[in-house]
Amino acid sequence: MHSRGSVLLLAAAFLASSTNTAVQWQRRDVTTPAPPYNLVAADLDGDGDIDLAAVARTTDQVMIMVNEGAGVFGLGSTVGGLSRPEALAVGDFDADGDADLVVANAGADTVVLLSNDGAAGFRPAGEISVGRSPHAVVAADVDADGDLDLLVADFSAATVTVLRNDGTAGFELAQTLAASPGTERPLLVDIDRDGDLDLATPSFSAAVLDIFANDGDGHFTTIAAVPMGSRHHLATAADFDGDGRADLVVTSAGSGDVFLLRNDEEGFADPESVPLGGMPWAAETMDVDMDGDLDLLIADYSGNRVIELLNDARGSFTAGRSFAVGIQPHQMAMGDFDGDGAIDLATANDGEPSITLLLSGG
């Protein structure tokens, strides 16, 4: 426990960094046709600006928000005909040089591929059956063949579906992994430092984090189920303590904590909690106080805010500033939206038809 003197020193150090070097966030709200539940950021129309694509569960559509320059967004188009879209992933799945989308279509137990014409015009180009109620989909090259594969979190089936890409957006089932109930968004990171992407999946219902090792060819084996908190939604990873290994951070909406799992030579240490209150939901990493280590940005779903958690370079976090965003920020995405060379933040506000931009001010 910190003494009163050490707390005062920490506060003074934080105030000094806030005044002199911390990112100065500027809020800008973008109106969307419907409340966005989840979003991704990428250059969708090939003009060099970072655009946004978001799913709207209330209207069963994808909303393409085109960046018109300097972080000014307008509606480009919508894609309908979906069934309770929960999440989406972005990448060049068909190797034609532009960014396509894949949607987790929870109401139909499928993922839907949306092919890009190069100018942010999207059309359905395939639908693939997965497990029951897919809540999340992520894209990564898990088998090291140079194209993007898909991992789908099947919430109600308690599985992760691994879909292998043949290089032309032809996806086939490679593996179905047994996971804990309420499987949420997969996190891909090299946990064991063998050069391939391993897998961690938070469980919303079972209060554990499932961890799987990749054999290098995209085949996964369960290695741990780490209990902590409750109602986990998202995880992120980085070397937070400077030891060269990827540590994991998990948000716990049920307990109001953020949990750190340190990765050491023997595996993962016991979870360390950072109490925040509210409903910590999404997490991103960024050096917000510009001291050379990665801090955390946490979306508080019930508090309608984004909270900074500042890293002391050894993986110990203290709460910093918080910033108001739209109602019920559910997911976040990062990118240089205003073209000033600095990374900005966007929140998908589930409780209103808006996306909030927090522009970092260069």
Helical segment count:
1
Kindly, what is the distance between the CA atoms of the first and last residues, rounded to a whole number of angstroms? 36 Å
What is the tally of beta strands?
A: 30
Low-confidence stretches: 1-20
Biggest sheet record: 4 strands, antiparallel
Strand order of the largest sheet: 1-30-29-28
Helix and strand content put the structural class at mainly beta
Average pLDDT, to the nearest integer?
Answer: 92
- Helical proportion? under 10%
Overall form: globular
Which strand-content bin applies to the residues?
A: over 45%
Tell me the radius of gyration: 20 Å
Please name the defining characteristics of this protein:
4-stranded antiparallel sheet; 362 residues; mainly beta; 30 strands; globular
Structure description:
The chain is mainly beta. Helix content is 5%, strand content 51%. The chain contains one helix and 30 strands. The chain has a four-stranded antiparallel β-sheet with strand order 1-30-29-28, with no helix packed on it. The chain has a four-stranded antiparallel β-sheet with strand order 2-3-4-5, with no helix packed on it.
